[in-house]
Amino acid sequence: MNQLFKTALVATLPVMLLTSCGKDDDGMPSDNSKTITVLVSENASLSLLKTAVIRAGLTETLSANGSLTVFAPDNSAFQAAGLGTEAAINAVPVDDLKKILLYHVLGEKYTSGSIPSGTTELNTAANIKTYVTKNSSGVFVNGAKVTTADVNARNGVVHIINKVLMPPSANIVQLAQSNANFTFLVAAVVRASTGSTNVAAALSGAGPLTVFAPTNAAFQAAGFATIADIQAANANTLASILTYHVISGRIFSSDLTEELCLLP
User: In angstroms, what CA-CA distances link 89 with 98, 159, 160?
Assistant: First the structure.
């Protein structure tokens, strides 16, 4: 990894304070006589998850004997993900929806008390790694907050979360290219890569990396009014700017603290 990617850039970040995570009253009591499927089906705040489980054909999977952990996105999480209606969920191809939901399932039971402090890499039922973090602010999975923890079922445990987790499908450069809000950033990466540092190759590498990605508006506020301005900039200067936005390591928003952001 290019040494530039180990530069600490947290001084550029706004102060971010994390709220505490506790067991909110979600109306979902534990019941060791019921399966995960039944507990989800009976909870009004998980009605969209129920729809998705049925659509993906996973009702039996979540009812089978065993010891599972399910990170269950609530209705607000589905709405924020653009899946706020039955029609929207049914529009997702079954195989894709199944992969998304299995990315929320672990093959072992992890209560909040059994999760170690720090960040733990775990394998999901989709055979893709996920990252569970436990700190003074609570428990998070891929940065999504556990709002209600430890809802025990006959075949495992449910933790309600505030975000739908999407399995990773692209590297950092590809993600930026697919987002219309990062066209200036993409142009900057392309231009910077013509100098002494191949920024595009570094950002496409195995990592792990964390990128604090400036939006188009951020570039404009910094004096790059148009993409043409970026293309006319010195490539090595752009490389220095861009690498200052990258940390070597996987840092979720739930890992950020006021102390970290205020480092000189």
Answer: 11, 21, 19
**Pairing state between β 68-73 and 156-161:** parallel
Note the pLDDT of residue 254.
77
Pick the CATH number of 3-14+170-261 from 2.60.40, 2.40.230, 1.25.40, 2.30.180: 2.30.180
**Which tokens go with 210?**
């964390």
How big, in percent rounded to 5, are the helix, strand and coil portions of the chain?
35, 20, 45
CATH superfamily name and code, 36-161: FAS1 domain (2.30.180.10)
Q: What is the mean pLDDT of the chain?
A: 86
Fold agreement (3-14+170-261, 36-161) = yes
Q: Is 40 helix (H, G, I), strand (E, B) or coil?
A: helix
Tell me how far apart the alpha carbons of residues 213 and 173 are, in angstroms, rounded to a whole number.
11
Q: Which of 31-40, 221-230, 248-257 has the highest mean pLDDT?
A: 221-230
pLDDT of 77 strictly over 60: yes
Q: What does pTM read for this prediction?
A: 0.77
What is the percent of the chain with per-residue pLDDT over 90, rounded to a whole number? 71
